[in-house]
Amino acid sequence: MNWNTLVKVVRYHLFGWILYVAAPWVVLAINFALYLAGAASAKPPPPGQFYGSGAVFAIYICFAIPGLVGMLRSLPFALFLGVSRRAYYAGTALLGVGLAAVYGLVLAVLQVIERATTGWGVHLQFFQVAYILAGPWYLTWLTSFVGLAVLFVYGMWFGLVYWRWDLAGLLVFATAQVTVGAAGALAATRTGAWPAIGRFFTTLGAAGLTGVLAALAVVLLAGGYATMRRVTV
To answer: Rounded distance, CA 58 to CA 27, Å?
Structure first.
């Protein structure tokens, strides 16, 4: 595996540029237009207050889809062309990380514009989200970059699980995660741990949360790579 091979894998994926480039931004643009129209038609909020929105996370959720489709749709043909499993995985991850870095920077710039225009002139905080995306532009860029990369790699792993264990394995994989999450939420509710969890994340801050997400990205990359080594198509 060399750099030229990785670049070829990236170019191979970008033949489907609509999925990787256009789709996430179209979804975000639609959400932004709806919230902007709503804020423009509503009464102005009290001085110093803004209309908040978490709809910017639509682009993060959508970014998992290219990672998933990149494995489901394109993997068999790439292996048929002679690309090794390791090179294909590394090249796909490189594409996701590279796009995440660029898209995170664009989101940070849009946040700067939003602040400079007092919420697009209608007091709308679309690209600013309390606690997570509310700091200086460079922290917003870093958090967005890591968050997008995590979801892309997560989508990749889902696609690999399908090729490794078929639909039944994919269902078990998804069900196990939902079960663990539900069990954790139930345990926190029964033990009254939610206030402590809230204090932990409040103390952690956006920078700390970004570090946790970065560690999660490494774990997901390792898990996907371990799965990829035994994939048969």
So the answer is: 7
Q: Which of 132, 140, 123 is nearest to 36 (CA)?
A: 123
Structure tokens at 69: 């489709």
- For residue 60, what are the contacts with CB-CB under 8 A and spacing of at least 6? 147, 148, 151
* Each residue's pLDDT tens digit, 31-69: 999 999 999 998 888 887 888 888 999 999 999 999 999
Residue 230 DSSP one-character state: T
Predicted TM-score (pTM) above 0.90? yes
Over 47-105, what HEC string results? CCCCEECCHHHHHHHHCHHHHHHHHHCCHHHHHHCCCCHHHHHHHHHHHHHHHHHHHHH
For 184-232, strand residue ranges (E) read none
